[in-house]
Design a protein that fits this description.
The protein is an alpha/beta fold. The chain has two domains: about 55 residues, no CATH class; about 230 residues, D-Maltodextrin-Binding Protein, domain 2 (3-Layer(aba) Sandwich), CATH 3.40.190. Helix content is about 35%, strand content about 20%. Helix 1 crosses helix 2. The longest helix is centred in the middle third of the chain and has 12 residues. The protein starts with about 20 loop residues before the first strand and ends with a strand.
């Protein structure tokens, strides 16, 4: 029985852990946690353990399971180290400007929506931002957040609705009409790194057009941020790319998605700490409102609303 026989991959001692795969099956994670498989299925149903069905099969990323175990460990209050003052996750021009201007004291590590959730789960960041559309439910962010951050310790705060579309050179000289047109004509397409919310959105939009990333003629290197993507187009290295309206400046723009939802994720205990409260207070200022108007492509009507509380 799983809950009586010592496991060869003890999460507390690390014995045998090097031989374990990065993705665990239900049986393997049950053995890893020393519980019955039935208990694992119950935890999945309650969404209290990190899991994925990306391949159609129930799998458990071991690094997220380890991070989840650490998050569940009860320690004396004096022994719980706070996360480093880092914002991790998706690149957002308005948010990163606000983090600098507000004096919230958070460094920016914009490495993509998925990576941001992993950094938060592992305790390597205090705040994460994401815009991940679940293709099955049509819901933004919450399915991915629940899969990465189990245990009811986090809260999801709405930041903004954003407009994404095709960025083109000024005046759209090639007369690009949409994704299918750009692919059919073999135009050079600037992309984002794998795991970025915008790249995942692009993949989903391509599938709706009956296309895949293989149908695009892409640039040699992916853009790290929306500003980088716009620069590739401005310098002539690409003919178009999916990006934010807020990053276009004087470039051309063809809106494709006007209701993309960008959310912030933070541990409930850290929500009340100065960095988060300073950022939210600054977002109510006149200076912030002027910046929103200047950038364009943002709807901040519900900024600060709680979308999910553990």
């Amino acid at each position: 029985m799983h809950d009586e026989t010592p496991s060869t991959a003890d999460p507390a001692s690390g014995h045998g852990s090097a031989a374990m795969p990065s993705l665990l099956t239900t049986a393997e994670v049950a053995d890893y946690l020393r519980v019955k498989e039935r208990t694992v299925y119950e935890m999945v149903a309650r969404q209290t353990i990190p899991f994925t069905r990306a391949t159609g099969k129930l799998l458990f990323p071991r690094r997220l399971v380890d991070a989840w175990l650490e998050a569940q460990t009860e320690l004396p209050a004096a022994g719980i180290a706070p996360p480093p003052p880092i914002y991790a996750g998706s690149n957002d021009p308005l948010l990163e400007w606000a983090l600098r201007q507000s004096g919230a004291g958070l460094a920016v590590l914009a490495s993509g929506s998925m990576q941001g959730l992993e950094e938060l789960a592992a305790g390597r960041a205090a705040l994460a931002g994401c815009h991940l559309l679940d293709p099955d439910s049509g819901t933004w962010n919450l399915p991915a957040i629940r899969a990465h951050l189990s245990g009811g310790r986090h809260v999801v705060i709405h930041w903004a609705r954003r407009t994404q579309g095709l960025i083109t050179p000024p005046g759209n000289p090639k007369g690009i009409s949409g994704l299918h047109d750009a692919a059919a004509r073999g135009l050079r397409f600037a992309t984002r790194a794998e795991g970025a919310g915008s790249q995942r959105l692009l993949d989903l939009m391509l599938s709706r057009e009956g296309l895949t990333a293989a149908d695009l003629r892409v640039t040699e290197r992916p853009a790290e941020t929306h500003a980088d993507l716009a620069a590739l187009i401005e310098t002539g290295e690409a003919d178009c790319g999916l990006g934010l309206m807020a990053a276009t400046g004087s470039l051309g723009f063809i809106p494709l998605v006007d209701d993309e939802q960008f959310d912030l994720v933070v541990a409930r205990r850290d929500y009340f700490e100065p960095p988060m409260q300073t950022l939210l207070a600054f977002a109510r200022s006149d200076m912030f409102a002027r910046r929103v108007h200047h950038l364009g492509g943002y709807d901040v009507t519900r900024l600060g609303a709680v979308r999910w509380n553990g």
